[in-house]
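2.7 Reproducibility. Because tokenized structures are sensitive to small changes in the input, we list the exact sequence used for Ribonuclease P protein component, including any N-terminal residues retained from the expression construct. No trimming or masking was applied before prediction.
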Amino acid sequence: MEPKKFTYPKAEKLKSRTTIGLLFTDGKSVSKYPLRLVYMPTEEADADGPIKMGVSVSKKYFKKAHDRNYFKRVLRETYRLNKHILTDKLDKPYSLMFFYQAKDRLSYEEINAKTIQLFEKFLLQEGLQESNL
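Resulting structure tokens (single pass, no recycling of outputs):
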């Protein structure tokens, strides 16, 4: 059994403006307050891995760049540590955009717990995981 790699390599970063635009027009979303995940399966033959991920924090809620940067760092870190929840179950490549959408300043632990719940909700919505009910 191969050990889990807790990395966020450059190949997993979502940078394509066209893909990001398609996510906003055609993507589906799932939310777990204060986080939101917009996603879309990708059919790219050159997909480097199962996931392309981007993060965003609204200027509407955090006016100062250092506040937005802090929450983007936290979102990237929680994704990096919990992406195995997604990669273990995904059977095709996905493009994901991860948002923090609240004025509330949650702690790292709370955001991490919400991220796990959000990823599980995403897998349920895509039919890749059984319900725990």
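The chain has one domain: 10-125.
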